[in-house]
Every structure is written in C-alpha cells, then in structure tokens.
Design brief:
InterPro entries: FAD-dep_OxRdtase, FAD/NAD-bd_sf. The protein contains 13 helices and 22 strands. Helix 1 runs parallel beside helix 10, helix 1 packs parallel to helix 13 and helix 7 crosses helix 13. The two termini are 36 Å apart. It binds flavin-adenine dinucleotide (FAD).
Length: 412
C-alpha cells in the first residue's frame, strides 16, 4: 500500500508526485492515459515567470463589446458555454474588479516568480535541458499606441513585482528576431520566462524521473475512487490500489470527480487549439501577437500556433475558428510554411473564478487533497504547487494554501 495516490498525470499530477516522493512518501500516479497527453501536451510550452497577474475578465465596454460581437480573437464563446458557466463567470467577474485582482495577483506573483527555480532541478535530473530555452517571451504590438500602453503596463509590473523586461522598439525587435518579415511597432521582452520545445515530452521526462526514483504510474479511471474506513482505493490495470491520502490533480476534469463526493466546484473552461507549420526559420524566442491573442513558438514538431480562450463546454466538438484567424494574422508577420497534417488538438485551461489554483486539503474528507485549477499557467506552476502541497502535508494544521475553498469563499 502506497502512502499517496495522485490522480492525474499532467504537469500538475506528475510534479506533485515528485514533490511527495522527494519528502520520503511512497507514491502511485493513476491516469487513464500516458503522462502528459492532455492539456499539458499541447500548450504553448512557456514557463511563465512573467505572469505575475492572472488574466482578469475585461471590464471595459469596448473590449466586452468586441468579445460579445465575435470581433476579438483572443476570447470567443458559445451560448451553451456561457449558460453552463454563468455562476462561475459572475464570480470571475467580481474577482476581476481592481481591488480583488490586486490581492489575488500578490499571491499569484508569489507562485509564478519561483516557477523556473522549481522546474530547474527537475529539468536537470530528468536530463531534459535540450528541450528548454531561456530566451524569454516576447509580446509583439502592431500598433504604436498599444505598444506605448503595454510599455507603461510592463513598467508597473516591474515596479510592483520585480519582473524584468525590455521594451524593444520595432526596429530593434526585428533585428533580434530573424523570423519577422515586417517591422512591428514594438515588443515587450519578458526576460525571465523559459520555454519548452516539447511540453508533453517534458511531462514524460518528469514521469520517467518519478519511476526511476521508485514511483509507479498506473492506468486507471479516477471515477472508481472510493473511501472506505480510513483509506482511499482506486481500480487500476495493476489491481486495486489503496492509500491513506489521495490528491486530485485531474486538471479540467477535477470538478466532475469531486461532484460525486459532494463538492460543487465552479470552473471556467477556457479551451485552446494548436496547429503546427513547417516554417524554415526557427524563432529566437516565442512571441504573442497581442492584437490577435495567438502565440507562436518553435517546437520539435514545427512552429506551433496556439490560441486564446474559447468559453465552451468541456465536451463541445472542435471548432478551431480562432486558429484559422490566428494563422492568417501570424502569416502577415512570419513565413509559416506548409501546415503539418495532424488530428486537431485542443485542450482546456482549468480556471477557477478567483484565478488561483486550488491547493490544499479538502474541508470534509480526511486524506483528500486538491491540486487543480491552474488556468493559463499550469505548465508553469506544476512543480511550485506540488511542492507547496507536499510541504503543507508534512506540516499538520495547514489549511487551503491558495484559491477558493469549496464553499466559494475566497481565501485571499
Ligand atoms: C492552447 C493552450 C496554451 C497554453 N499555454 C500555456 C503555457 O504556455 N504555459 C503554461 O504554464 N500553461 C499553458 N497552458 C495551460 C496549461 O496547459 C494547463 O494549465 C495545464 O496543462 C494543466 O495541467 P494539469 O496537470 O492540471 O491538467 P492536464 O494536463 O489536463 O492533466 C489532467 C490529467 O487527468 C487525466 N484524467 C482526467 N480524467 C481522468 C479520469 N477519470 N481518470 C484518470 N485520469 C483522468 C487526464 O488524462 C490528464 O492526463 C495552455 C493551455 C492551452 C489550452
């Protein structure tokens, strides 16, 4: 019998398993797929130390109008998505008001600022340095006024949270980025962020490290989770597994499982798509085209374009219109080359209405821990919240570390 079962083998689950293992606990990970095959597979691969402030809902009328009218490409929505997520969206809206967003950002910045430090020993031990670039992330602006506003906002982020950046005039940015075929208005270069050329493979490398250190990853369905007496059990291909503690790290699927234990977790599901291109000139560093809400990043599989948020139900069919628009927009900036044929990937950012991951013990079930809801930055934050949770576990009396408690109160 292991001490801990971690449900979910995405970046969050595998990093959590490694963190508990490092503290001397015996750990089993259970997933219905191989490690790193869902949301952690197809993201933009950026370890976002620059993301001090989580994405708030826009509050200004013109942005809301553009979203409502389908003009904006960074956020799209469906009626069924909005209807199913109404309570979560209303709470998200309240938490986006400046005072609350400021308090939330103070916590969030404390997580993102240590993210590269928390990944570093795992990257080294997993021998994954060849996938990592430390060139930062650029945000590209086409319009001089938007660049000016972004430079002022970047300066506020630097002075508030200490995140270093460079504001690059268009000519300087074009000189640094050989792939650009036009000179933009400018770029904000966030220097401390790292990027990964194969996010799914990094999770696999971390899972291999976990196995090499004595851990087991087993195929199984988290829906078989049961509590009996003082322990938890789950059915796997390797037989029924039992442990006194179970960690729910199922990303966007976490609320589904927890409903059967009486928890109603409000979640905002923000779907994103990616596509790959045979572009011949690799990017020096990933960049986001701010006007179109798409990110371009050189990957081992080709140049990856990934999209912003589609507010649709978790099980909605694929509708990659943001990807189509994003491809058109990015084609104006760089030569994309031929599109690589592949099944259409999409994944869902699991966002909680207070923009913070929910990390800590459940309030009503002994031995049930939460670690999910990492939204736009789960690839970044997996090792950080894994480490925080494992540390709190070994510190009796600690409560919810970040995020909403399941009654909906904000723990900020
Ligand atoms: C387009 C896009 C771009 C992004 N870019 C970035 C980025 O650049 N940087 C960043 O930090 N973040 C990024 N993100 C967000 C990031 O990908 C997620 O926050 C992160 O992957 C969530 O990790 P996770 O481990 O919580 O979830 P997942 O990776 O989805 O893992 C959950 C696991 O649970 C398993 N599972 C689900 N249900 C069951 C069940 N019933 N039984 C057993 N197993 C089950 C799944 O198979 C899966 O392996 C992006 C997301 C998208 C969509």
């Amino acid at each position: 019998m292991a001490d801990i079962i971690v449900l979910g083998a995405g970046m969050v689950g595998i990093s959590t398993a490694l963190a508990f293992q490092k503290r001397g606990h015996s750990v089993i990970v259970v997933d219905r797929k191989q490690p790193g095959r869902e949301t952690s597979f197809g993201n933009a691969g950026i370890i976002q130390s620059e993301a001090a402030e989580p994405y708030a809902l826009p509050l200004d009328i013109s942005t809301l109008f553009k979203m409502a009218a389908g003009i904006s490409n960074d956020v799209v929505w469906s009626v069924s998505g909005l209807m199913r997520m109404t309570p979560a969206l209303l709470s998200y809206f309240r938490n986006s008001l400046p005072g609350r967003h400021r308090r939330i950002s103070q916590i969030y910045a404390g997580l993102t600022c240590r993210a590269t430090q928390d990944h570093a020993p795992l990257i080294e031990a997993a021998n994954a340095q060849n996938m990592i670039s430390k060139e930062g992330l650029c945000v590209l602006y086409r319009d001089p006024r938007a660049f000016e506003e972004a430079a002022a906002a970047a300066e506020r982020i630097r002075s508030t949270y200490g995140v270093p950046y460079r504001a690059l005039a268009g000519v300087d940015y074009a000189a640094e980025e050989p792939a650009l075929k036009v000179t933009p208005a400018g770029g904000i270069h966030w220097e401390p962020s790292w990027s990964c050329a194969n996010p799914g493979a990094l999770v696999e490398a971390y899972a291999d490290l976990f196995r090499a250190r004595g851990g087991e990853v087993l195929e199984g369905d988290a829906a078989t989770l049961k509590q009996a007496g003082g322990s938890w059990s789950v059915s796997t291909a390797g037989g029924t597994q039992q442990a006194s503690t179970v960690v729910v790290a199922l990303g966007p699927w976490s609320p589904q499982l927890l409903r059967s234990f009486g928890y109603r977790i409000p979640m905002v599901y923000k779907r994103g798509y990616h596509g790959h291109y045979e572009s011949r000139t690799p990017l020096r560093r990933p960049f986001m085209d701010a006007a179109n809400g798409v990110v371009a990043a050189s990957m081992q599989t080709g140049l990856r374009i990934s999209t912003g948020a589609a507010l649709v139900p978790l099980d909605a069919p694929a509708e990659p219109k943001q990807l189509v628009r994003g491809r058109q927009a990015l084609g104006e900036l760089i030569d994309l080359g031929r599109q690589i044929e592949e099944p259409q990937w999409f994944g869902t950012r699991p966002c909680l209405p207070d923009m913070l991951p929910l990390v800590g013990p459940s309030p009503r079930h002994k031995g049930l821990l939460f670690n999910f809801g990492h939204g736009h930055q789960g690839f970044t934050l997996g090792p950080t919240t894994g480490d925080l949770l494992a540390e709190a576990f070994d510190t009796p009396g600690s409560g919810v570390l970040t995020g909403l408690d399941p009654t909906g109160r904000i723990a900020v």
